[in-house]
Description:
This protein is of the alpha/beta class. The protein has 2 domains: 1-42, no CATH class; 45-231, Rossmann fold (3-Layer(aba) Sandwich).
Amino acid sequence: MGGGLSIYRTTIRALARLLSQDCYVCGQNSDDRQICADCAAVLPHLAGPLCPVCALPTPAGAVCGACQATPPHFDATCAAFSYAFPVDHLVQGLKYRHRLPLAGWLANELARCVSSSRVDCVLPLPLSAQRMKERGFNQAQEIARPLAQHLGLPLISDACVRVLNGAPQASLPWKERQANIRNAFECRVDLTGKAIAVVDDVMTTGATLNEFARTLKLHGALRVENWVAARTLPA
């Protein structure tokens, strides 16, 4: 009996060593986690009073002046982090270095701060066919899949497509981004009365998410929320 138990424990320890990995931020051993405990403790969580519509900082959490002056088509935004180091490094690792397990980690972090009771389903922001061919996957869908599963919400991954592949939004001045994304999406289903959570990795100006929300509402969506892993904040 004692010999069998010893062999069992040895096997478990060997499996643990095989499953251990290095923290994607600092490179130290982090056992079976993507991010070690020390790095996780200092991540730039998005906190403080925020505009409930676009998630930018505002006094007392009031709707910001921009959202009051020109209300966007989306109704709310929730972000887990500000887009600052090392979260920018993590997002870029997912998108450009194919570190797909980071999508599950970002989904878990995002699940902590969203309210699933206000939506009926989860929908990842679509990529164009060209971008999908270049990248091989849609990072928004990779985040949305485990997030929807964790929250027990339906995932609708094929309802919409991006039909235009303009210049990357990040390469354009802020004022040109809305025009670049105009009429970029098509919706293929009836969304009448649905409250939808749109999942993406990063929200910068919000132009892409705003155009997508416009498309969803043209097809009957009652409410559109942005659930993003990270939000770019003003310098």
